[in-house]
Design brief:
By secondary structure, the chain is an alpha+beta fold. It has helices at 31-42, 46-56, 63-70, 79-85, 108-121, 142-170; strands at residues 2-8, 15-21, 89-93, 103-106.
Length: 173
Protein backbone atom coordinates (compact mmCIF):
# COMPACT_ATOMS: atom_id res chain seq x y z
CA UNK A 1 0.00 0.00 0.00
CA UNK A 2 1.45 3.36 -1.05
CA UNK A 3 0.85 6.65 0.67
CA UNK A 4 1.66 10.17 -0.49
CA UNK A 5 4.06 12.31 1.47
CA UNK A 6 4.13 16.00 0.69
CA UNK A 7 7.55 17.58 0.98
CA UNK A 8 7.67 21.37 0.82
CA UNK A 9 10.68 23.09 -0.71
CA UNK A 10 11.33 26.73 -1.59
CA UNK A 11 8.76 29.01 -3.25
CA UNK A 12 10.25 28.62 -6.74
CA UNK A 13 9.85 24.85 -6.92
CA UNK A 14 6.56 24.63 -5.07
CA UNK A 15 5.65 21.37 -3.46
CA UNK A 16 6.99 17.97 -4.35
CA UNK A 17 4.88 14.87 -3.80
CA UNK A 18 6.84 11.73 -3.17
CA UNK A 19 5.24 8.33 -2.98
CA UNK A 20 6.65 5.96 -0.35
CA UNK A 21 5.98 2.31 0.28
CA UNK A 22 5.36 0.72 3.62
CA UNK A 23 8.09 -1.72 4.46
CA UNK A 24 7.19 -5.30 5.23
CA UNK A 25 10.17 -5.86 7.54
CA UNK A 26 11.70 -3.14 9.64
CA UNK A 27 12.95 -4.98 12.71
CA UNK A 28 16.62 -4.04 12.32
CA UNK A 29 15.72 -0.39 12.81
CA UNK A 30 16.11 -0.83 16.57
CA UNK A 31 18.89 -3.45 16.52
CA UNK A 32 21.44 -1.18 18.19
CA UNK A 33 19.09 -0.32 21.07
CA UNK A 34 17.94 -3.92 21.58
CA UNK A 35 21.52 -5.21 21.39
CA UNK A 36 22.69 -2.69 24.02
CA UNK A 37 19.75 -3.63 26.24
CA UNK A 38 20.48 -7.37 25.88
CA UNK A 39 24.18 -6.89 26.61
CA UNK A 40 23.42 -4.97 29.79
CA UNK A 41 20.50 -7.12 30.92
CA UNK A 42 22.18 -10.50 30.37
CA UNK A 43 25.82 -9.44 30.88
CA UNK A 44 26.93 -10.78 27.50
CA UNK A 45 29.35 -9.50 24.84
CA UNK A 46 28.54 -8.59 21.24
CA UNK A 47 30.37 -11.63 19.89
CA UNK A 48 28.69 -14.01 22.32
CA UNK A 49 25.27 -12.59 21.46
CA UNK A 50 25.96 -12.96 17.74
CA UNK A 51 27.07 -16.58 17.99
CA UNK A 52 24.09 -17.46 20.21
CA UNK A 53 21.75 -15.85 17.66
CA UNK A 54 23.40 -17.99 14.98
CA UNK A 55 23.01 -21.17 17.05
CA UNK A 56 19.41 -20.33 18.02
CA UNK A 57 18.18 -21.71 14.70
CA UNK A 58 20.21 -24.93 15.01
CA UNK A 59 18.69 -27.52 17.33
CA UNK A 60 21.80 -29.66 17.84
CA UNK A 61 25.33 -28.66 16.90
CA UNK A 62 28.89 -29.88 17.21
CA UNK A 63 31.97 -27.96 18.24
CA UNK A 64 32.96 -27.98 14.58
CA UNK A 65 29.78 -26.08 13.64
CA UNK A 66 30.41 -23.70 16.52
CA UNK A 67 33.99 -23.09 15.38
CA UNK A 68 32.88 -22.51 11.76
CA UNK A 69 30.86 -19.43 12.78
CA UNK A 70 33.29 -18.41 15.49
CA UNK A 71 35.90 -17.84 12.78
CA UNK A 72 33.93 -14.76 11.73
CA UNK A 73 34.18 -13.22 15.19
CA UNK A 74 37.03 -11.81 17.23
CA UNK A 75 39.43 -14.48 18.33
CA UNK A 76 38.65 -15.97 21.73
CA UNK A 77 40.07 -19.38 22.48
CA UNK A 78 37.81 -19.94 25.49
CA UNK A 79 34.48 -18.70 24.05
CA UNK A 80 32.87 -22.16 23.84
CA UNK A 81 33.87 -23.11 27.38
CA UNK A 82 32.83 -19.71 28.71
CA UNK A 83 29.38 -19.98 27.16
CA UNK A 84 29.08 -23.53 28.49
CA UNK A 85 30.18 -22.46 31.97
CA UNK A 86 27.67 -19.57 31.97
CA UNK A 87 24.93 -22.09 31.16
CA UNK A 88 24.12 -20.87 27.65
CA UNK A 89 25.31 -24.09 25.98
CA UNK A 90 24.60 -27.56 27.35
CA UNK A 91 25.76 -30.97 26.21
CA UNK A 92 23.00 -33.02 24.63
CA UNK A 93 24.83 -36.26 23.70
CA UNK A 94 27.91 -37.84 25.26
CA UNK A 95 30.66 -39.28 23.09
CA UNK A 96 30.85 -42.78 24.57
CA UNK A 97 32.29 -44.65 21.60
CA UNK A 98 34.52 -41.93 20.15
CA UNK A 99 32.80 -42.52 16.81
CA UNK A 100 30.14 -39.90 17.23
CA UNK A 101 30.80 -36.27 17.96
CA UNK A 102 29.40 -34.73 21.13
CA UNK A 103 26.26 -32.79 20.43
CA UNK A 104 25.33 -29.54 22.11
CA UNK A 105 22.23 -27.37 22.28
CA UNK A 106 21.29 -24.02 23.76
CA UNK A 107 19.87 -24.11 27.26
CA UNK A 108 16.23 -23.29 27.91
CA UNK A 109 17.24 -20.05 29.64
CA UNK A 110 19.37 -19.04 26.65
CA UNK A 111 16.55 -19.81 24.20
CA UNK A 112 14.20 -17.75 26.36
CA UNK A 113 16.70 -14.87 26.33
CA UNK A 114 17.01 -14.98 22.52
CA UNK A 115 13.23 -15.24 22.06
CA UNK A 116 12.91 -12.10 24.15
CA UNK A 117 15.51 -10.34 21.99
CA UNK A 118 13.56 -11.26 18.85
CA UNK A 119 10.29 -10.07 20.40
CA UNK A 120 11.90 -6.73 21.24
CA UNK A 121 13.21 -6.42 17.67
CA UNK A 122 9.82 -7.14 16.12
CA UNK A 123 8.20 -4.90 18.74
CA UNK A 124 5.93 -7.64 20.05
CA UNK A 125 7.20 -6.62 23.50
CA UNK A 126 8.33 -3.29 24.87
CA UNK A 127 11.63 -2.75 26.63
CA UNK A 128 11.01 -2.16 30.35
CA UNK A 129 11.66 1.36 31.61
CA UNK A 130 12.03 0.71 35.32
CA UNK A 131 15.25 0.28 37.26
CA UNK A 132 14.42 -3.22 38.52
CA UNK A 133 13.93 -4.81 35.08
CA UNK A 134 16.37 -2.74 33.04
CA UNK A 135 19.91 -1.97 34.20
CA UNK A 136 20.16 0.89 31.66
CA UNK A 137 17.68 2.89 33.75
CA UNK A 138 19.87 2.62 36.83
CA UNK A 139 23.10 3.59 35.04
CA UNK A 140 24.64 7.05 35.21
CA UNK A 141 26.77 7.08 32.07
CA UNK A 142 26.11 9.31 29.08
CA UNK A 143 25.54 6.23 26.89
CA UNK A 144 22.89 4.97 29.32
CA UNK A 145 21.15 8.36 29.18
CA UNK A 146 21.09 8.29 25.37
CA UNK A 147 19.83 4.70 25.29
CA UNK A 148 17.11 5.53 27.85
CA UNK A 149 15.81 8.21 25.49
CA UNK A 150 15.98 5.80 22.52
CA UNK A 151 14.11 3.12 24.48
CA UNK A 152 11.35 5.57 25.38
CA UNK A 153 11.01 6.63 21.72
CA UNK A 154 10.98 2.99 20.64
CA UNK A 155 8.25 2.12 23.14
CA UNK A 156 6.19 5.17 22.08
CA UNK A 157 6.49 4.12 18.44
CA UNK A 158 5.35 0.62 19.37
CA UNK A 159 2.33 2.03 21.22
CA UNK A 160 1.35 4.22 18.24
CA UNK A 161 1.57 1.22 15.89
CA UNK A 162 -0.52 -0.93 18.23
CA UNK A 163 -3.20 1.76 18.53
CA UNK A 164 -3.28 2.27 14.76
CA UNK A 165 -3.56 -1.49 14.18
CA UNK A 166 -6.33 -1.80 16.77
CA UNK A 167 -8.24 1.11 15.20
CA UNK A 168 -7.83 -0.43 11.74
CA UNK A 169 -9.24 -3.75 12.98
CA UNK A 170 -12.19 -1.95 14.55
CA UNK A 171 -12.75 0.14 11.43
CA UNK A 172 -11.99 3.44 13.16
CA UNK A 173 -10.11 6.01 11.07
Amino acid sequence: MAKDVVVYTNAQKGKIVKQTRERKHNFLKHWRVVRYWAKRKYNISDSDLEILLYLYDIDLFTRKQFRAFEGLLTWDKTRFNTLRDKGHIIQWREDKTRRQAKLYTLSVACKRMLTTVYKKLTQEEHIPTNRHNNPIFSGDSYADKMYRQAIRRMNEERERKMIAQRNKELGID
